[in-house]
Amino acid sequence: MIELTNTSTIAASQTPPALTWFPANLPSLNRRFARLEPEDVLNWGLTTFGEQTAVATGFGPTGIILLHMISQIRPKTQVFYLQTDLFFPETLALRDELAERLNINFIEVRSELSLDQQSRQYGPELWKHNPDLCCQLRKIDPMRKFLADKKAWVTGLRRDQSSARANIELVSWDSANHLLKLCPLAFWSRKQVWDYIYSHNLPYNELHDRGYPSIGCQPCTKPAKLNSGDERAGRWTGLDKTECGIHFHDGQIVRLAEVR
Ligand code: SF4
Known about the structure:
Elements: E1 2-3, E2 9-10, H1 26-33, H2 38-49, E3 53-56, H3 61-73, E4 78-83, H4 89-102, E5 107-110, H5 115-122, H6 126-129, H7 131-147, E6 152-154, E7 171-174, E8 179-182, H8 190-199, H9 250-259
Helix pairs in contact: 3-8
């Protein structure tokens, strides 16, 4: 139950809070949402923007929670993932299991370049010599195109995943993609995430049990110790890179412009 005013309450799966948004009221909206449950933030976004809302997942634990929540709140919501053609087989198996279990028709968003075309145009194994460009071609550009006609997108980012994510908000303006961005789980801890997964008996990527804190494309993901609680450990090991750029992207665009 969420508190709307001093006198009324409402269930998350019913009518969401009738809060309008505009750029200037995002700070107050975030303060208001901070008192609500993730389901309420999610429900507000899905109701406010309807079919122009898309939920992103990379099949990590927080994404799985969002998928479970929308299967309860609004099952027909668009869910997309960035098909880089470089996933682990375990991730693809999880995708299929989630599709069946939660009745989700995943939208596959992919690069205009096949891996072969990318190799011919930019050289083989681009992720080894220019991972920023590889992420731009296989993730950032396709996602920007997909989001062009949307008004809001939802992600499973959390503040305590890494220092780079420490200041994310529940609701923010995504200036690179020109739409609202919702992170309903922004304030959840790692423990809350796994408690939810276990208590709802949800499937998760078996690679987590084999020492992978975070799982992305196969060439750029390694097992790692959770040093200082950095859940992004093991991604782009040995490189000065911790994000693919779909969330923190300005630097990527500049670097791509320099390369082309
Ligand atoms: S994570 Fe690695 S393989 Fe995947 S798109 Fe980025 S650089 Fe390429």
